[in-house]
Amino acid sequence: MYFGSDNQAGVSAAIMQALVEANQGIAAAYSDDEWTHRARAAIADWFECDADVHFVSTGTAANCLALACSLEPWQIALCHGQAHIINDELTAPEFFTGGARLLGLDAQAPKLSAITLAHTLSQGSAHPPHNAEPAVLSLTQLTESGQVYSLEELRELTDIAHQYGLIVHMDGARFTNALVSLDCSPAEMTWRVGIDVLSLGATKNGAMTAEAVIFFKPSLAKKFVHMRKRSGHLLSKSRWISAQFLAWLKNDHWRELALHANQQARQLSAGIAEHPKCRIVWPTQGNEVFAVMPKAFIQSLRDQGGIFYEWTPSFVPAEQRVREHEAMVRLVCSFQTKPCEVVQFIDALHRT
Amino acid sequence: MYFGSDNQAGVSAAIMQALVEANQGIAAAYSDDEWTHRARAAIADWFECDADVHFVSTGTAANCLALACSLEPWQIALCHGQAHIINDELTAPEFFTGGARLLGLDAQAPKLSAITLAHTLSQGSAHPPHNAEPAVLSLTQLTESGQVYSLEELRELTDIAHQYGLIVHMDGARFTNALVSLDCSPAEMTWRVGIDVLSLGATKNGAMTAEAVIFFKPSLAKKFVHMRKRSGHLLSKSRWISAQFLAWLKNDHWRELALHANQQARQLSAGIAEHPKCRIVWPTQGNEVFAVMPKAFIQSLRDQGGIFYEWTPSFVPAEQRVREHEAMVRLVCSFQTKPCEVVQFIDALHRT
Amino acid sequence: MYFGSDNQAGVSAAIMQALVEANQGIAAAYSDDEWTHRARAAIADWFECDADVHFVSTGTAANCLALACSLEPWQIALCHGQAHIINDELTAPEFFTGGARLLGLDAQAPKLSAITLAHTLSQGSAHPPHNAEPAVLSLTQLTESGQVYSLEELRELTDIAHQYGLIVHMDGARFTNALVSLDCSPAEMTWRVGIDVLSLGATKNGAMTAEAVIFFKPSLAKKFVHMRKRSGHLLSKSRWISAQFLAWLKNDHWRELALHANQQARQLSAGIAEHPKCRIVWPTQGNEVFAVMPKAFIQSLRDQGGIFYEWTPSFVPAEQRVREHEAMVRLVCSFQTKPCEVVQFIDALHRT
Amino acid sequence: MYFGSDNQAGVSAAIMQALVEANQGIAAAYSDDEWTHRARAAIADWFECDADVHFVSTGTAANCLALACSLEPWQIALCHGQAHIINDELTAPEFFTGGARLLGLDAQAPKLSAITLAHTLSQGSAHPPHNAEPAVLSLTQLTESGQVYSLEELRELTDIAHQYGLIVHMDGARFTNALVSLDCSPAEMTWRVGIDVLSLGATKNGAMTAEAVIFFKPSLAKKFVHMRKRSGHLLSKSRWISAQFLAWLKNDHWRELALHANQQARQLSAGIAEHPKCRIVWPTQGNEVFAVMPKAFIQSLRDQGGIFYEWTPSFVPAEQRVREHEAMVRLVCSFQTKPCEVVQFIDALHRT
CA of C284, closest CA in chain B: separation in Å? Predict the structure, then answer.
């Protein structure tokens, strides 16, 4: 019963097969191979625009290169207080940007609100060059608490940000989980609602290691190739990431993978919610379930083979205040989650 | 007839098979999986010591993280003037080290000499903190001109470096090509002759993307995991690099791959040397051949399907001075080079 | 009626005289002159310990070099949310530290509380190296809202910080204003209550440009001279800063200057408090007065020659909520503030 | 007999007097004071153009901020191999530029030659983004060996640099010594011969601590104020540097100071040249004398009170090869050098 993380999963069979098939003869190195040319075009097509697409092997590299292309070292990137970039990437954002600053907002809520954003930006900065000023807004879709920003919410947030001249970045480590949740097109969830640059992750949804930085505003990409090279993220044998993306896009393979993961999460969530001593913290909108349950249950589930993390309860909604004998857990489903694992887990819970 | 670069090759069948086999179920992320534990131990074993072993996906990352662990931002790393770190990694060394400096020596010779090193270090620095001081010596084995430092040469260079308190780094992007050339053990070519930290590349010798940083002096590794994380080089699905290394080491697979590449290069070299209008610039000791030939030949070989690079003739030995109508080329063999390609190339040359 | 800032004042007559007197013949450069040797020793004496003392010309340099000596680029420095380092030094802390992070706490209160600090540190970091961890606590004495931490408060905060292995830095841009307010010794307000490294500012209290970094824990200073040099803060004609410090310390000149400034502030505060439409926001403990008054008054006072800043009212105590027709102002006194200016200002206010 | 360095001198009486006079009342801080406005305009006037002028307190800060405004972190600044920026400023250039690279040329000659520059630039860079490329040429006027580039030489060098798209920086730590040597105008020695940005030093020629960065191409200055602030080089009490520059420019005070220094150096040089066992290494064109003399003389001169440095003989012209019993010395004159000191020194030499 593996619900630890979607990055603990393996590689989808179709993607692994694509790697095997890409192992044909010689290919130009350093992104100049045929696979890379095709994959870049395929992604631009997928987004129905002339996006400038580049590949790297980790989400941290994708996020931080996107940020580094979008602000100066004396500026600020705003993000949710629980965002991956501020919470889980050490100080990589500072490293890549040459020392720009992150400012986390709304850490107590599951999403960044337009009100908070507008308030923060309206305060302004009295005395340049003394005060660092916001230049980027970074949004995570799925958020770190498994929530999906609606298209309206995204539009509202990007409108405010653009009004103040900010660039808007989307951390799309779980982009496709959000996409199938909203049932909209990649274009609709990005540049059509004002996203300027996207980190698109395939790794968590079936790939081996495949991340892309996608500039919808190509002028932002000017320094990208230099920044990627000098951070050691230009792969020599570049065909391998590209081959993964090609397979991921082919026949909407990504959708099948993400739908499966989300569906398992929904089942899991429903099963947990039925237990009178458990409760779901936020609506299960993607492939992550956040639940509060008695600590004794957690131990028991682990004893029965459940793999999952306890989650920092710092931003549980007040009405769900975790009591002394309880704890909050995060359960993540992936393309690889077996329906029987979900059933087993719920059974185990209800037996407890 | 592909002699462009060994990083244009694909993946060896055994390594690809290992990837397929590693695609079994769930594995802990971020280097905490079973494959990674085993691969780290296997490499330490291979080196017959308690080396501290870490994986990354590019040679630039491996080199630069090794450097960043070995000096302060106000110090200097000495290297050969044609070293990959100073010539082909943009300013990645400066980026990772927070602004340390590279100083290239002996750019006109195929290897760094002990005399130059001793002379450079003996000059000293009169007035700290005004002058940046050398703290690292980085050696490339195979060198960028395909030469192998003998064990005696390595020992002499590291002795001088250590005498001045320097850390010695080896860039082993083509480590195994050198190893089979010297026919010695990994330990003999590294810590036993004074190497403190090694960048070990498997990518150029049959892997997909697999590089390691190996600290023979474990105290140097103290900051490594932080530096790797903040440069975006900690892979979430870490098993994949590890699985490559395991397959590469298994049954001395690396040796078979490297021997093949070197052997093809020797054949190629011998065939070229026989042509009265061509000459080999430096002895072919690894998998790279450097030759001077008439420009007309180059065009003709390309017309017949030859893939290779012209090479900057800046450091051709004086006695081999490239004449007006000539140019220098680099021909690289890999595990994938077919003997018939070599034969074909030599035939084409002699027919020209 | 100048209450803009204490850094808008000139230089005390005694310090200017010292500069004139130091202009005698030749002196060694780069901190190796007699004045510098004497000033370093005099400051260590003043602190009654073997402090390691270094000079720079700005408070930002002093703060940021102190921070850079105290943490790694992947760590966090905690500070009050209104601290100068996080609010008024652009991203200099990130620049000097190579990309460490600042985390501002208690921005809504005039001082950082032990409760907040303990709470923040107790949360811990679950998964190194993913999460950046606190390694420094930076306290400002006088705070940016003119408050003085008592010796007990300092001791409580440093105890908590040390319990978690943090280094404690004090930003003493207005150190002497706090010192005369507490009427204690320099040692009592620093290392005796757990301060590890201090930025000591003389500039705001009568000097031309004279700041010191003082390491009470000399092991922290190991990299200082290199960091100062490479940030361009090693003055060649070093005697001039040292001569200022010597004059500032001589016969407790600093005390006379700071007492005067604080006393003027107290007078000013008392005069404002008497006006029924004005109120003092925080007790006037140093040389800064924070008051709320009708906006009409502000205009009128400026028309009569009053120089001062409106202040961001973001962290006014709730019970003092600034009403629509009011605004908050900051009035700073310096060694140069004339008693008649204070009288004039109060008269003008009461006439309004 | 002080010939150690011109930064061991004091402050000219006129400049000290100006500081005393500037100590009048309150002044806006952070470069917004009247003195600063006037000094910026005065310098632009002096250069007969709309230069964008900014002040800092050290030459290293001026040089490094100028460089940081002129290239990207993945580019190269070319300079003479003995330039101050590469030899005497630790790794400050790397720090300020975020990790750009310096490449020293012609270290064996007293000046950088157009031939070397053209050759270096003509080699080009084959494979972006793998190779760092030159983006800045930095020239030192006076050079570190006391030589003056003629206007023709400057023009030739800047023409070549501009042809390849480089920005040309001049390190003018001893700008006025060169200016009086060439007897031309500030404009003629800078933007009229193609200099784009200048570090202008007054410190070595009579000021206390006063350096300026002067952008003749104002578009280069866009990031300057942010970079100065975040490197801690924006002084709060900014009037003091400005007052020095005003006094330095007034009535061509700088000229009088520089003429004196150069004249003393010429006398000294002539006196040394007359000694049959001594020889002048390069023509004495500014305020520095480089001479070879018997080691025994050096000791004897020091015993008689001579203060000066031995100089690294690494780039003595071949025809002057320093023999076993000889050494090379540098003797620097300043505005403060007394004619009697020169006479005394020559007498002492000839008595030896």
Answer: 44
Q: Does residue A317 belong to the interface with chain C, where contact is any CB pair within 8 Å?
A: no
Contacting subunits of C (3+ beta carbon pairs below 8 A): A, B, D
Q: Is C101 on the interface with A (CB under 8 A)?
A: yes
D71 pLDDT band, cuts 50/70/90, is very high
Query: Which residue on chain B is closest to A27 by alpha carbon?
Result: B8
Going by their DSSP bridges, the two strands C197-201 and C167-172 should be labelled as parallel
Cα(D288)–Cα(D143) distance, integer angstroms: 10
Question: Rounded to an integer, what distance in angstroms lies between the CA atom of residue A209 and that of residue A201?
Answer: 9
pLDDT tens for residues C15-36?
Answer: 999 999 999 889 999 999 999 9
For residues A72 and A98, give the distance between their C-alpha atoms in angstroms, rounded to a whole number.
Answer: 8
pLDDT of B171 reads 98
For A:65-84, CB contacts with C below 8 A are 73-75
Nearest residue, CB atoms, B208 vs list A59, A90, A240: A240
Question: Which of B91, B101, B130 is opposite residue D132, by nearest beta carbon?
Answer: B91
CATH of D254-351, one of 2.60.40.10, 3.90.226.10, 2.160.20.80, 3.90.1150.10: 3.90.1150.10
| Tens of pLDDT, residues A197-231 | 999 999 999 999 999 999 999 999 999 999 999 99
pLDDT for A256 beyond 70: yes
Chains adjacent to D (≥3 CB pairs closer than 8 angstroms):
A, B, C
The class that CATH gives domain B11-251 is alpha beta
Asked if A99's CB is within 8 angstroms of D226's CB, the reply is: no
pLDDT tens column, B271-297: 999 999 999 999 999 999 999 999 999
- Residue B190 token pair: 């590294």
> How many Cβ pairs closer than 8 A exist between chain B and D?
63
* Phi, psi dihedral angles at B177 (to 5 degrees): -65, -40
| Contact indicator for C240, C211 with CB cutoff of 8 Å | no
Q: How confident is the model at residue B314 (pLDDT cuts 50, 70, 90)?
A: low
pLDDT for position B322: 86
Contact of D332 with D262, CB cutoff 8 Å: no
Give chains near B: 3+ CB pairs under 8 A.
A, C, D
In this complex, is the C-beta atom of C10 within 8 Å of any C-beta atom belonging to chain B? no
Domain residue ranges of chain D, discontinuous segments joined by +:
12-252, 254-351
CA pair distance D123, C113, nearest whole angstrom: 62
Of 3.10.20.740, 3.40.720.10, 3.40.640.10, 3.40.190.10, the CATH number of A12-251 is 3.40.640.10
pTM here?
A: 0.97
| Residues of chain B positioned with their CB less than 8 A from the CB of A92 | 229-232
Question: What was the ipTM of the complex prediction?
Answer: 0.96
CB contact under 8 A, C232 and D307: no
- CB-CB: which of A129, A225, A228 is closest to D226? A129
What CATH class does D12-252 carry? alpha beta
- Measured between alpha carbons, how far is B54 from A57 in angstroms, rounded to an integer? 17
- Structure-token pair, residue A157: 């947030």
B164: closest CA of chain A, how far (Å): 30
Inform me whether the C-beta atom of residue B230 falls under 8 Å from chain C C-beta atoms. Answer: yes
The more confident residue out of D124 and D266 is: D266
pLDDT bin (cut points 50, 70, 90) of residue D138 is very high
Q: Does the pLDDT at position C352 exceed 90?
A: no
Please tell me the number of Cα atoms within 13 Å of A268 on its side-chain side: 33
> Per the CB < 8 Å rule, is B230 touching C98?
no
Q: Which of residues 109-128 of D touch A (CB under 8 A)?
A: 128
Average pLDDT rounded to a whole number, residues C32-46: 97
d(CA C198, CA C225): 16
CB A81 within 8 A of CB A107: yes
Task: Provide the pLDDT for residue D314.
Answer: 62
